[in-house]
Amino acid sequence: MNKDEKITLKPYLKWAGGKRQLLAEIKNHLPGNIDKYTYYEPFIGAGALFFELQPKRAIINDFNAQLILTYRAIKENIEQLIELLRTHRENNDKEYYYKIRNLDRNTDEFNKLTDTEKAARLIFLNKTCFNGLYRVNSQGLFNVPHGKNKNPAIYDETLLRQIGNYLNSNDITILNTDFEQAVTNADTNSFIYFDPPYHRLDKTSFTGYQADGFLETEQERLRNVMITMAERGVKCLLSNSDTEFIRGLYAHGYFEIIPVSARRLINADSGGRGAVNEVLIKNWK
């Protein structure tokens, strides 16, 4: 294989709002010579676009601390992570699922877990819970029921090792902070892809990533960051749901609103899965 040839990477988690269905459309609206930019993704989630592009220099971030532990474990402690996942796979059944899920009910005991143990726990729960949801209650406790899949693919060792190699062979910074803080150092040589929790279409559209949610005030703050970046000459692309609120929020000369359609496979209500209207919003012409 050529030194610069990319190995195909894909997300190792199933995540609400994942972008694999929209990659071709998103790539049509990226800046030219995207490889020349420092890539920022402040709401990394499962990282579909990040893994598709495989930038040589990137700053990835998420406010979900448990999620970020999985990226760091893959980068810094892959051997122990795989060993722990192997143990989870060997013990997997309904009773074991609830035992692992309920570890966070005892804060003192949960805090005794190493970061890699917490990372393996999240990956295990993600692959064995109902419909691959990540949802927490108002106390921040993971509360998704068992998925009843008798033989789930809990992990792909080859994929995890390939991702670990990519993260360690390139200049990749992994953050766990506020989205605005994550892009503080972006400049004209940077490109930012914002993929926040979507503005809620209805009560079943899944947005329960964090106990405190992502309210309309946060959507407004994100819009203000997009304006600030436009004024600094930083190219940004944002994904969100196609709602009257979002269209009104971005009804500004800096922005181009591009309607797209995506198929959503993760929703608390099976009737809510299927084609949904979304928008891509650019802050440059």
TrEMBL record:
Enzyme class: transferase
Coiled-coil regions listed in the entry: none
Positions annotated to bind S-adenosyl-L-methionine: W15, K19, D62, D195
EC identifiers of the protein: 2.1.1.72
Keywords of this entry: Methyltransferase, S-adenosyl-L-methionine, Transferase
Record-linked InterPro entries: Ade_MeTrfase_dom_2 (IPR023095), DNA_methylase_N6_adenine_CS (IPR002052), M_m6A_EcoRV (IPR012263), MeTrfase_D12 (IPR012327), SAM-dependent_MTases_sf (IPR029063)
SUPFAM superfamilies on file: S-adenosyl-L-methionine-dependent methyltransferases
Any one GO BP annotation for this protein: mismatch repair
One Pfam assignment: MethyltransfD12
PANTHER family: DNA ADENINE METHYLASE (PTHR30481:SF3)
Family assignment from sequence similarity: Belongs to the N(4)/N(6)-methyltransferase family.
Protein name: Site-specific DNA-methyltransferase (adenine-specific)
